[in-house]
């Protein structure tokens, strides 16, 4: 059945990315402000390849989509830059719209997940690789494990043998986007097959958990990813060039930037007093070590914008780090281009920290002009994702969350 016929049969359901949009209302007396309400569940917003890798602290897919719709490129060569790319939410939404996009993140894991989500994958080849990896996990009794306290804490011995067999099989494959696709699937199950709580941001030991069986978990994950990826590639009607590199966003290598003009920067920094990203992915970094020869934990940690715990020096460094990265964004953005910052207030020792206002001040000091503030209600997930469930919840103070549009003068 062709795409047109599918659409006639199922209506707009074949294009969830067009269906889910923030519900936008104006704010009385504030002509340059809106409220974005996002009344959808996390699974609803995990359509297509967004669900490939669970990234804690990502923004809802529709936030990136709405920004891209509000601020479209002027020419087909223009590209959008996401300078805190995370798991590539912006890149997926850009590719769906046929917009060129470039992601930068200090994390190797983030670049892997982002690139996998948007890559032109040969799904038949990915299936073949995954079959070799799964086959390797079927006879593991001969695998001898070295003593390792970290591994012994988090994974049952038999699970560790299977994960080692998967790892060895992946290492035998030649480098390709399809190998990375399977590597992403492998890293996506690491937490599930461990003793860590599934839903918590930083891994915490759950003594009552029976970890899932790795062969079944990987097989299910691969099947799910292949189905979603096929739908994703079908949904991308226009071609566009989309990728992510590992870099500190305070100094982005110019020779890596796409050709064309950067017309938009989308930016979603770690929220102050919430959490740092590297420790959250300690388990995935542990099992991915042989795959990331060029990534070293110390350099990454040094470059990462630290957000927690918000003590005096850290808070000072946080704002200084934001200033540096937005100065870099200003240099890359073409005149007349836009910056969209997704940011939220926090509390520090129960006292409100006005992160929004401070960000506006530091970004305006660089030369940007504030154009619009879109406040975001935070009950997406139909009330399940209220503030009390957030990692940065530390009291009752009224905190604001917003997507702020800035412009660079022409
Ligand atoms: C809030 S997350 C972004 C999530 C993203 N919007 C998504 O939907 O997946 C912030 C990201 O900033 C990255 N980061 C922190 N410091 C950075 C730096 N100096 N340069 C580039 N990326 C950085 C972290 O690794 C993390 O992935």
TrEMBL record:
Gene Ontology biological-process entries: methylation
Family matches, as InterPro entries: SAM-dependent_MTases_sf
GO terms for MF: methyltransferase activity
Keywords per UniProt: Methyltransferase, Transferase
Domain of life: Bacteria
Name of the protein described by the UniProt record: Methyltransferase domain-containing protein
Organism: Cognatishimia maritima
